Amino acid sequence: MAADPIISLRGVTKVYGSGPTAFQALKGIDLDIQQGDFVAVMGPSGSGKSTTMNILGCLDVPSDGEFLFKGRHVETLDRDQRALLRRRYLGFVFQGFNLLSRTTALENVELPLLYRGEDRKARHEAGMAALDKVGLKDWWDHTPAELSGGQQQRVAIARALVTQPAVLLADEPTGNLDSERSLEIMELLRGLNRDVGITVIMVTHEPDMAAYARTLVHFKDGHVERIEEGVSA
Amino acid sequence: MLGTTIILAFRAINRHKLRSFLTTLGIIIGVAAVVTMVTLGNGATAAVREQISSLGANVLQLRPGQGFGRGGGGPRPPAFKPADLTAIENQLTGVRAVAPLVQSSGTAIYEGSNWSTTVYGTTASYFEVQSWKSDTGRLFMPEEEEAGKPVCIIGNTVRTNLFQGSDPVGKRLRIKGVSCQVIGALATRGQGGFGDQDDVVVMPIKFVQRRFTGDRDISQIMIAVDDAYDTSTVQASLEELMRDRRKVKPGAEDNFNVFDTKQISDTLTGTTTILTQIVAAVAAISLLVGGIGIMNIMLVSVTERTREIGIRLAIGAVAREVLMQFLVEAIVLSCLGGLIGLLLALAASVAIAPLMQVPFIFDVRVNVIAFLFSAAIGVVFGYFPARRAAALNPIDALRHE
Fold first, then answer.
1. CB-CB under 8 Å, A87 with B316
2. Candidate from B8, B316, B398 with C-beta closest to A112
3. pLDDT 10s digits, B370-388
4. Nearest CA distance, A92 vs chain B (angstrom)
5. Where is pLDDT greater, at B57 or A160?
6. pLDDT band at residue B69, thresholds of 50, 70 and 90?
7. A141: which residues sit within 8 A by CB, 6+ positions away?
8. Among chain B residues, CA nearest to A110
9. Which residues of B touch A54 (CB under 8 A)?
10. Which end of chain A is flanked by fewer CB atoms within 10 Å, N or C?
């Protein structure tokens, strides 16, 4: 715990709406995440974990409090600045895969590089390398409709890591998969965390999946209820 | 950055080929309609101008009376005299050729055939004024004009009706009971603004005056204006000269009129141009409707692709990039529509022009303007949907089903 954390939340609150109908989703979160950690965020629905993930993913801003990402105050950044932060440092994996339909696996994986302005050759090489890492090199020209759920999620992971992000945010990545595929995905995420050193933050309901993480963060009623560190090796 | 957006636009269009085609259909039809109308209209204008110029370019026609449809009661205004002709030839500057004209009508007979036609009494200058060449034979000799000899030059309609295929030169035909020798036949002029110009028998004016009209009156004088002079200036001095010669009191109205073929030409071509513009404007409305069609589909597309937009924003696209993507998509669609429309218009114009008997004139300017206009439609009608896409909240967009 000597190094500065890559992510640091201080007294973060989030209120939706205003007046009597206002709903306080987060009631003051303090959370530090170290570089290279594998964090599982758990908690019942409505406990504030999705809101926290949106804030960590720089998709949303806190109503109050501080969010430091690599020492920068994200809560002061505007929409486009946060987009550039996402482009530079973050990778996303969603429960519903969220691949572009009628688009090949390779084109999906190349997409973030397009926004980085990389040329065609660099995109192609990096895209194929990322597909290789998730074991789908031979499926590069298949569209999502031609891939199984597990394969689609692996394409999504390839898309997330093609930019070599510092942090991978996964929102229930195994939620739509059977247990066998789920374990494959978890193995993949653990491998990336261990070998490449990507910080992984994952929301999950399932203790089996959470078991892959090193740190468990339990949410309840808009608070961090407890943090378990060093759960697995 | 722009290159990337264009790639993205083409990918998106390629993913939805049928929808893209239907989207651009409005633009295709609009551009095709406008360009076809303008092209055919320009052809019609050129055809009208061509017909008018067959009357003789820069020709002033001097007639007694106050022009068409006026006159009514009162004494008949006097006809012109040979001295008027001489005065015009000698006193007016900027005149290339002057020809007197008297008209009569009658039946021409050659062997078994007869043909009812118009007889013009004039001089050889008439052909110069009209820029009219003979097809075979010759024009009047000065001595034939001077003596009023019974010779005639026939128009092509008279030629085909009396002589069929045979050579008319040297043959004698009877017209209004007198015999005359055909010395020439004229080249075809076709239908002018005032009927068949080839249905004519031209004879020396003195002969026509002596045998047919019975006086020395000249019913019309035609003046060809030298190209170096302004027609309206020559017309003004002509009017001044004639007022003086015909003793028109100051303040009184002219008892003659000058008819400028160039003016008629301008008026008629002006009319066809206005008609073209009106038709083009109606067609342009379909272009506008096409633009609204693009906006419509783009709005649907933005809603349908909300999740895609969410993915792009999450991945790190800034709002401007999403805006550009949809804007460029709309522009690419409308430009493609414009191009296809231009090709259709080209095909349609080439096919229809001969049916309408107008020349096909490819006007680069019209095509370029129509294309730029279709591109502009893409910008205008693509901007609103694109802005809506760019303004989406990534969290909501990702959750969109």
1. yes
2. B316
3. 999 999 999 999 999 999 9
4. 7
5. A160
6. low
7. A104, A105, A106
8. B315
9. 395
10. C
In a domain, B67, yes or no: no
pLDDT higher than threshold 70 for residue B331: yes
Q: Nearest residue on chain B to A50, judged by CA atoms? A: B395
On whether both B168 and B117 belong to a single domain, the answer is: yes
Asked if B304 and B240 sit in the same domain, the reply is no
Q: What are the percentages of helix, strand and coil residues in chain B, rounded to 5?
A: 55, 20, 25
Q: How many CB pairs below 8 A link A and B?
A: 60
Instruction: Tell me, yes or no, whether B183 lies in a domain.
Output: yes
Give domain limits for chain A. 7-228
Give this prediction's pTM. 0.71
CA A81: distance to chain centroid?
Answer: 19
Contact A115 B310 (CB under 8 A): no
Among all residues of chain B, which has the CA nearest to that of A109? B315
For the segment(s) A7-228, the CATH number from 3.40.109.10, 3.20.20.140, 3.40.50.1970, 3.40.50.300 is 3.40.50.300
**Residue B311 and residue A98: Cβ atoms within 8 Å?**
yes
- Whole-number average pLDDT of chain A: 92
User: Domain check: are B177 and B28 in the same one?
Assistant: no
Interface test with B, best of A52, A78, A79, A81 (most B CBs within 10 A): A79
**Predicted local confidence at residue A1, as pLDDT:** 47
> In whole angstroms, how large is the CA radius of gyration of chain A?
18
pLDDT in tens, B144-155: 988 889 999 999
CB-closest option in A57, A103, A115 to B317? A115
Nearest to A100 among B311, B314, B320 (CB): B311
Domain range for B221: 78-254
- CA distances in angstroms from A95 to A47, A216, A218, listed in the order given: 18, 19, 19
Choose the closest CB to A94 out of B1, B4, B398.
Answer: B398
d(CA B3, CA B61): 65
Average pLDDT score over residue span A80-101: 93
Residue A226 CA, chain-centre distance (Å), reads 21
Confidence band (pLDDT; 50, 70, 90) for A123? Answer: very high
- Chain B residues close to A79, C-beta within 8 Å: 318-319
Whether B60 is covered by a domain: the verdict is no
* Per-residue burial over B309-337, b = 16 or more CB atoms within 10 Å of its CB, e = otherwise: bbbbbbbbbbbebbbbbbbbbbbbbbbbb
pLDDT band per the 50, 70, 90 thresholds, residue B72: low
Please answer yes or no on whether B315 and A111 come within 8 Å at the CB atom: yes
Q: How far apart are CA A56 and CA A203, in angstroms?
A: 12
Q: Do A98 and B1 touch (CB under 8 A)?
A: no
pLDDT tens profile B260-277: 877 777 788 888 888 888
Phi, psi for B199 (deg, rounded to 5): -90, 75
Name the one residue in this structure whose structure tokens are 């720089």: A58
